[in-house]
Structure formats: C-alpha cells, structure tokens
C-alpha cells in the first residue's frame, strides 16, 4: 500500500500516526487514572465511572455557556476554570456517593459493582432529564482548535497536545499525592492493612472518602478534557467503561505505573492496527490480545501482589 | 411530476392563509370535516380498531431512554406536532387523534414487545415509530402478523418493502446517487474514501455508493473503505490514512456520538473542510447541534430536507415546531420525515374512507401531500415516497445552505437493479 | 449423597407455589400477549438459575452470561432462519436459498458453520454444546490459573464486548446489529400464532422446572457443598485435596448451559435474536435479576426475573421517562439493604412467622443453614 508515496510523505504519516497513538494513550491514561485509584487502591469496582466523567463534561458545557453569556472576555481561558469546576463537582459527588453507598460495601467488592451500576442508570437518566436527551456541543476557544504545522506535511492537533500535557500534569500530581505526600502514605497504609492503619491513628473513613473523591474528581477532569475530542451525551459514559477497566486490569490493579504501561501498549497496538485494518477489526484484535495475555498472566503486567 | 408540486403554491390567498395560521401548513387543501358529519364508526372501522365516534387511537413508538434517545427525540416531537395540528384542523374522518406513546428504550426486543402491545392491546389504527434499521426489522414481523400500519421516518438502506409499512424517509439509492452525481459533476471528484459506522445502513449505502462510483462515474474510483464500531471515538488513525491517500471526496456515513468525535478530530488534524470535500448522508441539523457548527462548516450533506429550505410550507412548519418545542430546537431530515407520517396517514384514511388497515394500505399508493415542509411528496406503489434529493453545505451556525436540488422527484427503488 | 428429602418443607412450598402460579394462574388469567411477555421474562430465569449455582454457591461472578444466552439463542435462530429461507421464500434474491442478510452482503453460498443448522437434532445439540464448550475453554484458561473474583468478572465482561463487536462487524455471516430476524416456523410449525405461543409457554415452563430440579440436584449433592466451601475458604478446599479449578469450571459450564437454554427459548418466544443480548448491559441486567431474587435461592432467581421485568415493563408503560430511576434505585436498595434479595427477606421476615404459625420447631442443620451464609465476595 505504500508503493505510490514518496519517502517524505511516509515519514510525515508515520510521525502523525505515532502522535495519534500518543493521543489515544493520553485518553486511556486520563480515563484509567481515576479508576486505578478507586479500584486499585480501594478495591471498589465503580461502574459509574463513566457517568462521573460525563458530569465533568456537562460542567464544562455549562461553564462555557455561562462564560460566553456573562464574561465573554474570559472565554479564551475558560477551559481551565471548567476543569477546576469539573474536578470539584465530580469529586464532591464522589464523596457523597462514598458516604451514602460505597462505605457500606467495602467488604463486598462485587456488590459495589451492582450498586454502582444502579447508580450509573440513575445518573444517566438524571442527565437526560436535566440536560435533555440530545448531545450537547461544547464550544472551544479559537486557540484550542486547529493544528500546529510542524513541517509542511506534518500537522499535530492542538487539542491532542493539550490532552497530552494535561495527562502528564495529572499523572505527576497523582504520583506526588500518592507517593510523597503524607496523605498518600495514609492511603497506602489503609490499602495495605486497614485495621493496623486504624490502630495507629489514621482516620480510615476519611481517607476512604477523600480517595474516592479524588478518583471521581480525576474522572471529572478527564470528562472535561474529552469534550474536545468526543461527544457529550447522557449515555456517552458507558462507551468508556469497558476499555477503562481493561486498561486498569491489564496493568495490574494496584500499580499506577502498570496502568500507564498498559495504556501505552494498548493504545499503540490499537492505533497501529487501525492503520492497517478496519476500525472494527482493530478493536476486536486488540481486545482479544488483552484477554489472551490476561489469561496467561492474570495478575496483569505489573502487579504488586499476586493472587488472592 | 414537479409541475404538480407547485400547483396551488402561487395563490396569494393560500399563501396569506398559510402565514396566518402558521401552525397549519396543509389546512387549505383539506376539506374541513366538522365533527357532526363524521361517518359512522361501523362503516369506517370494520376490523375492531380503537376508533370511536369521536376518537381514533394511534401509537408513537420511539426510544426516549437509552442511547438512541438522542436521535429519536426529534421524531417524537414532530409526530406530536403533526397530531396536534391535525386535531386542530378537524381530525381524521371527524375524529380526534389520541396517541399512546411507548418507549422502545433503544432495545430491539422492547420495540417488538411494545409494537405488539400497541397493536394487540391498544388496537392502534396506525403507529408512527422506529428509527434504527434494527428496531424496524424487529417490529416488522409484528406489524405483518397483526396487520398494523407503521410510518417509519428514517432514511434507511432499502432492500425492504411491506404492505404494512410506509417509509417516509428516503431509501439508499434516492439519497446516494444524486449526491454522488452532483459531487462528480461540480467538483470533478474522481477518488472517494468511504467511511461508516459498522452496521447495515452504512454498509449497504457504501455498497451502493461504490457500485455507482465504479460503474457510473467516468474514471472515478474508491480509494478506501472503513467501518468503526458504534460509539467509536478515536479517528486519528483513519484521518492519517485519509491524509495519505488524499481522496477528492470523503464520503462519511458515521452515526450517533461517533460523529462528534470524528468531525472534531478531523478539524483538529488540520483537514479544512472548505478545501477538502466531505459528503455525508448521516449528519442532519440535529447532529450538528452536538458536533458544533464550527467543526463541520463546509461539509456537504445529501438528504431530502434541510431546516433552511425556503418555502412557505417549511416556514410555517419551522415556526410551529419552535413554538411547540422551544426556540432552540433544530429540525433535521428525519424529524421532518416523522412529521409527514401522521399527515400521510390522515390523507390516506380520508382517501380510503376507512380506518381499516387493508384499505389504508391499498389506498396509500398515489396519496399526495402538498403541505409537506420539504415540498410536494407522493407515495409510490412500493410504499416509499417520491421526493427530491438535495445537497446542503453546512454553515458555522449549524444550518445547511441549499446548494443543489434535483429537478424532479426521485423515484424510490428499494431493490435497485445493478446495485445489489 | 442426596438428602432423604429432595426439598425441605419450605422449599416444597416454594416449588408448589411457583408451579401453581406458572402452570395454572398465569395461563388462566393473562391474555396471550401478556403470557408471551411472561415467557420472555422467564427466559432470563434460566440465566438466573445458572448464576445462583455459579455466583451464589460458587462465588464466581460472571458478567458475560449474555454471551451464552446469545450463543444458545443464535444457534436456535440459525436453524429457524435457514428454515425460513427456503428457496421458494427467497426467490427474489440473487442467490435463493440463503438467508436474506447474506444475500445483501454479496454472499453467494452458505458459510460452512451454518450448514449443520439445517438439521434440528444437530441444532439442539449445538445449543447445549457450543456454549458449554466455550465456557469450558474460558473456564479452563482462567480457573486453572486461579483468576477469580473481580478479575474474572471484568474479563468475562471484555469477552461479551468482543463478541458483540465481532457479531456486528461480520454482518454477512451473523446478520450484524439487526440480528437474525423474521423467523417463522419450527419444523414446519408456525411459531408466530397465538396457539403456538401458548404451547411454547408451557414447553418453556416445563424446561424451567427441569432446570430448577437439576440445579437443586447440583446444590444438594456433595458438589454443591464443595462449591459453598470453596466460596468461603478456597484454600482450605484446595488443601483438602480437591481440584478447585475443576469444580469452578463445572459450575461455570453448568451456568452457561442453563443460560443457553434460556437463549434458545428466547429466540422461539420473541421470534428473533440480536447482538443486543450478548453485550455487557444485558449481562449485567441478568445478574441484577438474580441479585434481586436472591443469589442464594434457585426460586429467588425465577421470582427475581419475573418481578424485575414486570416492573420494567409496567414502569416503562406508565412513566417512560422515569423508569430508569426506579430500576437504578432498586439495584442499590437490594445491594445495600437486602444482600440476599427477595428470598433473604422471605427467609428473615416471613418464614419465621410461617413457622410459628405451623408450630414447627425444626432448627439446626438443614441445607439452608449452609446456603444462607454471608454473601459471596
């Protein structure tokens, strides 16, 4: 298929294709980070994760409308406000849900799956009732659209770079919070031994609530970022949930580094396959490969502890 | 046939009336039956449908929950508007239309179940409904078995014809061929890249498009064809392939939420739709609302209706629709086709002089609706509509600007020879 | 191996009550349309019974039961479709004698894997074997490597996603997203008539009771006890010399086969099969039916499927826009407040009163004391 093209063309395409893979990678990392915290650190299966993301997207949409109406001069930078608000909204809802529901279920991880599935149904219908069944389009400031002309033939999407930068920032922030802050040490202490952590004076309930809130807040930021590349509708969250879980499980549930490595390998596989095959088949083959590898190596790529 | 279409439109009195009664586009063409003169129920309803001396029951069957609610909401709104207008203008054979709405919940068996309920329990005289091909395929055996009447609004892949269904949207050849001819003639397009969501309508449509491109357009060829799972949101790889092959035309039949991702990513990747021709048959004004007009401006869409059509019928329809459902609502091709359903049914019933399904089905061919927002339409023997095909250019405000329409009505041909 | 009594008294009452309801009350009181709906709900009860065995007793939560339901359903649908696509029915096609969707996709010959479905006996075998073997492969690969709990749930979910995309993508062979539609006759017998629906309902109920009894049998034999033991303390069972993996594989396969029977009946009752029953959403919903009924109770699974679906239909008829709220709330309520579902409520609140009423003092060891343990993790 490459016979007819000049070397320069091919080089440009491969550069852009590599970048496409990196964007997909960023998307996966953003989706999976929040879940990796909730699932990996707390063992809670949050099926409503996608709905928390969509909440962030709707918050972005509302912010965009509000800014356009009341403070148009702010519009070029509104996205940063929107992301902050999305983090707060999703995080707050997450803490509320943890308090009302999740904390009663820590001993029954599979039941969290069912309960959060119920929650996701409720949230979907709530979005539909409040925002309408139709998709909403989020308007972006001019500077975030279009592409950066790297060379004559290489164009890099600006929103893609934005998502990548955001991913890097959030990953660093999460790593810092979890591994270097004293709060992060408390979280990890609770993960490793809840009873002992409680005994040495850590308020485990509070740690749980904030951890869950943090995970959901990151989901909100992810949703906010996805308004740039995807759609915002009541059921859009469902599209992400399986992929996200696979990324987390494939990486090894309790390992942040594993999540990132798995997001990288999955995204590169998928975007390369997509280039050579049709989109549907690329997806099937990627998923099949993941499942096959998971059958051989059930603990995922990077696991801290093996088996139950 | 186009002469007929314009008959009556020029009368100034009619125009004034139309403007005056913005909500009633077709009123002047219909004999105003007063309730007292209504024919006896025993005469017009011999098969036990839900018809009383003052009322007739029809069903509305669309998804108001689930993934398809996004698309089907507009159809529900249009059908309710049409029913209200018909009732305001005297109803059908002197009877007011009462509707029962059921939710298909974006789930095909639920559609079948609800269709059966509407026909068997509620004895609906007609059902306006369904949107996706899958939902129509699911209810079709139900309508045939229990002898109901379905008015189906969506443009679809063809390959189907039933006594019990009136297809008020276009079938694939109507929608596709005129658009391809146009883009070939005016843009000199020779190479086409076909894209679609992975299900029957895009696949069949692309098959017809490919046959037409390779068989009927001089020197034209297809340089790529790809499908994506429904709900797919990552198009960067295929966009790179498009950049590599540099087709004259991107022919896109992507549906639902994927659209939003596709056009946003296309724009972000530096493909400027004012220079790169893109022709779609799946993006109506409804979808643009989610995509954002600035992301799709410059693309061409080929269908039978645009909200911006400049004719008196359409102006009345648009203002009535906005009055009922809010200033911000937009109207797409399917919404307009859904609006035709109740009207066509009313006209057919009055032509047949009966609500009986068999008589309505038999009377359907030849029924004309001059008040259609898209302009004159007529039902073909194969229960599809004769309609014009139009090409519009998307603008940043979310509307299409009409750039081309076929001179004559295009004949529906659900089983096209040479395209199968 | 089997207890002196196959059912204890309360189970016997439950069995009889269900039998009277399904065999007598519903057929007499409902019109054929509603009865057909009940039949549709009951197809999920098959899945539910399987889940009771594999999830309630074995502690293996599968979120991919839709896969087996779908495979069973597709096997049946392929047979019916071939019968409906006889050469004279499909004269207008460019290749008569093959299903219409194949013709639309330019297939000119029947694919090899469709050929066995010309024969009814082979179809019946396939309905049981195809899902069974598929479950065996998945189960062997996973359980031998001791994948369990949450991981198993997520992997089964991924398998459901893969199969859905595959079916939709290969529409020339599978009918794509529309599924296999317009099924008419079974062995020359029109399944669309009211009379046929009535008979099919009874066939289904009989099959359902056969499955109930089979499940009860599994539960009461040593096998069932090992499953429970495994759920509670997997390592101890392993150290006692049992092959935990094999028992898990068995439970998973049994659940798959039950689900497949349900799927095949679904195709007969509803008249078509589509990938929308294979995916993640229906799979989770089937788990929910079981959870509502009570994951520890075979009868609970049947009641759960009936009641949730009944609620779904009636809520969506009266409040089409709001039924998801109710459904979501129901899931949360069941998980939070009644982890053993309806059967748990029955056992905790109603049963003691009934016992008191009859003056029964039967306490101590019976099978329920094993079963009503803590919910599976």
Polypeptide structure, described:
The complex is a heterotrimer of chains A (308), B (420) and C (377). Chain A has 11 helices and 2 strands. Chain A is mainly alpha-helical and 308 residues long. In chain A, strands 1-2 form a two-stranded antiparallel sheet. In chain B, 63% of the residues are buried. Chain C is mainly α. Chain C contains 16 helices and 2 strands. The two termini of chain C are 28 Å apart. The chains are: A mainly alpha (308), B alpha/beta (420), C mainly alpha (377). At the A-B interface, helix 1, helix 5, helix 9, helix 10 and helix 11 of A face helix 4, strand 7, helix 9, helix 10 and helix 11 of B.
Taking all residues together, what is the mean pLDDT of chain B?
Answer: 87
**DSSP helix count of chain C?**
16
What is the chains' assembly state?
heterotrimer
Percent range for helical residues of chain B? 40-55%
Question: What's the layout of helices and strands?
Answer:
The complex is a heterotrimer of chains A (308), B (420) and C (377).
Chain A: H1 7-42, H2 49-70, H3 78-100, H4 109-131, E1 147-149, E2 155-157, H5 158-179, H6 182-192, H7 194-199, H8 204-226, H9 236-251, H10 256-276, H11 279-296
Antiparallel strand pairs in A: 1-2
Helix pairs in contact in A: 1-5, 1-8, 1-9, 1-10, 2-3, 2-4, 2-8, 2-9, 3-8, 5-6, 6-8, 9-10, 10-11
Chain B: H1 2-6, H2 12-20, H3 41-44, E1 55-62, H4 69-88, E2 96-103, H5 108-121, E3 126-129, H6 133-145, E4 150-152, E5 165-167, H7 172-187, E6 191-197, H8 200-216, E7 221-228, H9 236-245, E8 249-253, H10 257-268, E9 277-280, H11 285-291, H12 293-296, E10 300-303, H13 312-325, H14 333-352, H15 357-363, E11 368-369, E12 377-379, E13 385-386, E14 390-394, E15 400-405
Parallel strand pairs in B: 1-2, 1-3, 3-4, 4-5, 6-7, 6-8, 8-9, 9-10
Antiparallel strand pairs in B: 10-14, 11-12, 12-13, 14-15
Chain C: H1 9-29, H2 32-57, H3 65-84, H4 100-104, H5 120-143, H6 149-169, H7 171-174, E1 185-186, E2 189-190, H8 194-220, H9 222-232, H10 234-239, H11 244-270, H12 280-293, H13 298-318, H14 323-337, H15 341-358, H16 367-371
Antiparallel strand pairs in C: 1-2
């Amino acid at each position: 298929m490459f016979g007819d093209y000049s070397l320069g063309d091919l080089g440009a395409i491969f550069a852009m294709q590599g970048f496409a893979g990196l964007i997909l990678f960023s998307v996966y990392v953003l989706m999976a980070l929040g879940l990796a915290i909730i699932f990996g650190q707390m063992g809670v299966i949050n099926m409503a994760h996608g709905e928390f993301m969509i909440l962030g997207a709707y918050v972005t949409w509302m912010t965009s409308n509000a800014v356009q109406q009341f403070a148009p001069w702010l519009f070029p930078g509104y996205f940063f406000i929107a992301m902050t608000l999305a983090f707060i909204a999703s995080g707050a809802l997450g803490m509320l849900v943890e308090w009302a529901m999740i904390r009663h279920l820590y001993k029954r991880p599979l039941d969290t799956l069912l309960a959060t599935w119920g929650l996701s149904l409720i949230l979907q219908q709530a979005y539909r009732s409040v925002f309408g069944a139709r998709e909403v389009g989020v308007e972006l400031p001019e500077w975030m659209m279009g592409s950066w002309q790297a060379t004559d033939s290489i164009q890099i999407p600006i929103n893609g770079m934005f998502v990548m930068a955001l991913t890097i920032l959030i990953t660093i922030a999460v790593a810092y919070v979890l591994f270097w802050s004293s709060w992060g040490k408390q979280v990890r202490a609770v993960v490793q031994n809840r009873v002992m952590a409680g005994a040495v004076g850590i308020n485990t309930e509070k740690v749980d609530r904030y951890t869950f809130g943090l995970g959901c807040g990151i989901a909100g930021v992810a949703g906010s970022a996805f308004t740039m590349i995807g759609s915002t509708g009541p059921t859009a969250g469902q599209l992400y949930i399986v992929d996200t879980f696979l990324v987390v499980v494939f990486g090894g549930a309790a390992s942040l580094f594993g999540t990132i490595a798995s997001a990288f390998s999955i995204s590169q596989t998928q975007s390369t396959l997509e280039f050579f095959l049709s989109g549907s088949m690329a997806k099937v083959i990627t998923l099949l490969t993941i499942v096959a590898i998971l059958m051989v190596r059930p603990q995922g790529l990077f696991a801290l502890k093996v088996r139950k | 046939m186009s002469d007929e279409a314009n008959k009556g439109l020029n009368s100034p009195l009619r125009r004034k009336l139309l403007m005056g009664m913005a909500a009633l586009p077709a009123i002047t063409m219909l004999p105003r039956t007063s309730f007292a003169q209504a024919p006896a129920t025993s005469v017009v309803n011999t098969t036990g449908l839900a018809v009383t001396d003052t009322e007739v029951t029809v069903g509305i069957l669309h998804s108001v929950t689930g993934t398809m609610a996004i698309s089907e909401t507009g159809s529900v709104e249009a059908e309710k508007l049409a029913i209200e207008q018909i009732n305001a203008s005297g109803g059908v054979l002197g009877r007011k239309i009462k509707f029962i709405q059921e939710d298909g919940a974006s789930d095909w068996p639920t559609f079948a179940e609800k269709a059966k309920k509407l026909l068997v329990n509620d004895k609906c005289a007609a059902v306006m409904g369904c949107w996706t091909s899958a939902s129509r395929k699911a209810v079709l055996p139900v309508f045939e078995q229990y002898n109901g009447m379905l008015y189906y609004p969506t443009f679809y892949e063809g390959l189907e014809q039933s006594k019990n269904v009136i297809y008020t949207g276009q079938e694939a050849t109507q929608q596709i061929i005129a658009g391809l001819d146009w883009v070939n003639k005016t843009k000199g397009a020779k190479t086409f890249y076909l894209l679609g969501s992975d299900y029957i309508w895009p696949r069949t449509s692309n098959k017809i498009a490919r046959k037409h491109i390779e068989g009927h357009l001089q020197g034209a060829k297809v340089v790529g064809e790809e499908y994506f799972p429904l709900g797919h949101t990552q198009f960067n790889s295929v966009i790179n392939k498009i950049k590599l092959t540099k087709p004259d035309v991107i022919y896109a039949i992507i549906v639902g939420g994927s659209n939003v991702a596709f056009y946003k990513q296309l724009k972000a990747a530096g493909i400027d739709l004012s220079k790169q021709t893109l022709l779609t048959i799946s993006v109506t004004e409804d979808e643009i609302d989610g995509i954002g007009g600035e992301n799709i401006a410059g693309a061409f869409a080929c269908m039978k209706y645009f909200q911006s059509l400049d004719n008196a019928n359409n102006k009345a329809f648009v203002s009535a629709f906005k009055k009922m459902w809010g200033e911000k609502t937009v109207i797409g091709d399917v919404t307009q086709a859904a609006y035709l359903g109740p009207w066509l049914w009313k006209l057919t019933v009055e032509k047949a002089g009966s609500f009986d399904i068999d008589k309505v089905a038999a009377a359907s061919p030849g029924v004309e609706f001059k008040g259609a927002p898209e302009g004159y339409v007529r039902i073909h023997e194969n229960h599809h509509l004769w309609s014009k095909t139009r090409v519009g250019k998307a603008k940043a405000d979310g509307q299409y600007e009409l750039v081309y329409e076929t001179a004559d009505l295009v004949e529906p041909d659900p089983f096209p020879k040479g395209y199968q | 191996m089997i207890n002196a009594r196959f059912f204890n008294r309360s189970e016997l009452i439950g069995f009889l009550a269900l039998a009277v309801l399904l065999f007598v009350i519903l057929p007499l009181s409902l019109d054929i349309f509603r009865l057909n709906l009940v039949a549709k709900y009951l197809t999920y009860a098959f899945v539910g019974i399987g889940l009771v065995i594999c999830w309630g007793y074995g502690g293996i939560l599968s979120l991919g039961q839709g896969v087996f339901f779908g495979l069973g359903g597709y096997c049946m649908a392929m047979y019916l479709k071939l019968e409906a696509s006889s050469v004279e029915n499909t004269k207008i096609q460019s290749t008569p004698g093959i299903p219409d969707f194949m013709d639309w996709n330019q297939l000119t010959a029947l694919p090899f894997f469709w050929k066995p479905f010309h024969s009814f006996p082979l179809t019946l075998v396939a309905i049981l074997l195809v899902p069974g073997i598929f479950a065996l492969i998945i189960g062997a690969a996973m359980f031998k490597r001791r994948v369990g709990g949450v991981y198993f749930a997520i992997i089964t979910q991924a398998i459901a996603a893969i199969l859905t995309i595959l079916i939709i993508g290969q529409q020339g062979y599978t009918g794509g997203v529309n599924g296999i539609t317009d099924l008419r006759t079974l062995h020359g017998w029109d399944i669309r008539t009211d009379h046929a629906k009535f008979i099919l309902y009874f066939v289904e109920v009989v099959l359902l009771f056969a499955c109930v009894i089979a499940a009860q049998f599994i539960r009461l034999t040593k096998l069932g006890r090992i499953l429970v033991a495994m759920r509670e303390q997997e390592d101890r069972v392993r150290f006692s010399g049992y092959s935990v993996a094999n028992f898990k594989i068995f439970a998973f396969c049994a659940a798959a086969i039950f689900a497949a029977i349900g799927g095949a009946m679904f195709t007969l009752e509803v008249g078509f099969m589509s990938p929308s029953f294979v995916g993640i959403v229906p799979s989770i919903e089937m788990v929910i039916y079981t959870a509502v009924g009570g994951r520890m109770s075979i009868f609970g699974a049947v009641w759960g499927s009936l009641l949730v679906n009944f609620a779904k239909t009636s809520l969506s008829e009266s409040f089409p826009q709001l039924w998801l709220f109710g459904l979501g709330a129901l899931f949360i309520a069941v998980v939070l407040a009644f982890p053993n579902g309806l059967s748990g409520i029955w056992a905790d609140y109603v049963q003691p009163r009934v016992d008191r009423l009859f003056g029964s003092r039967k306490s101590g060891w019976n099978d329920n004391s094993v079963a009503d343990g803590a919910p599976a993790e």
